[in-house]
Amino acid sequence: MIQARNKLSQEELSEAKKVINCCQNYDGTYRDPYLSNMLNFDPNMPAFFLYYEKGELVGLLTVYADDQDVEVTILVHPGHRRQGIARALFTSFERETASFPIRSVTFQTERIFLENHPDFASNWGLIEDEETETWLGKDRRPYPLANVSHLEVLLADSSYQDQISQLKFQAFSEEHESREVVDRYVAEALKDPESRSYIL
């Protein structure tokens, strides 16, 4: 049974994280899918598709849609793969979002997954995007920083929102990205209690 949601309940979020962790451990992947719809261009659009088998969550499709070029991530519990669950989730996504103005759909995955599943892209009729991202992480332990007396680092708050948006738009926006999208990103990041933004 597939359930479509525009927002996950706490219980669904907990179940989703268990499936994600199980898949990451099995596949050797690390990237977490975005489990919120707060940046999606339409908060009413379904962003989560949950596949249940005998009351247990075994598959998950997430939608990241800050504009009409959306990104989907599909995760299926390793013990339930090769049973059509991923295709069923994607078919449900296509059906449930047909009335929304989606221009394109990009599948998010990691290099190691593609290497371990060499038929994945061809089976789905996908072409690898040459402009893929590489994510690097740093352990959460302190490390020494140089002390530069003429610079100051401050915790950002909403009073800096316009300045941050302007700088982000000028420095990091892609050609197709609108200022409204950047403003929404910055506003949500500053409101998010689990995120901290700093300014220099």
UniProtKB/TrEMBL annotation:
Domain N-acetyltransferase: residue ranges: 6-144
User: Pfam families from the xrefs?
Assistant: Acetyltransf_1
Cite the GO molecular-function annotations of the record. acyltransferase activity, transferring groups other than amino-acyl groups
Q: Which organism is it from?
A: Streptococcus pneumoniae
Q: What is this protein called?
A: GNAT family N-acetyltransferase
Q: Which UniProt keywords apply?
A: Transferase
| Annotated InterPro entries | Acyl_CoA_acyltransferase (IPR016181), GNAT_dom (IPR000182)
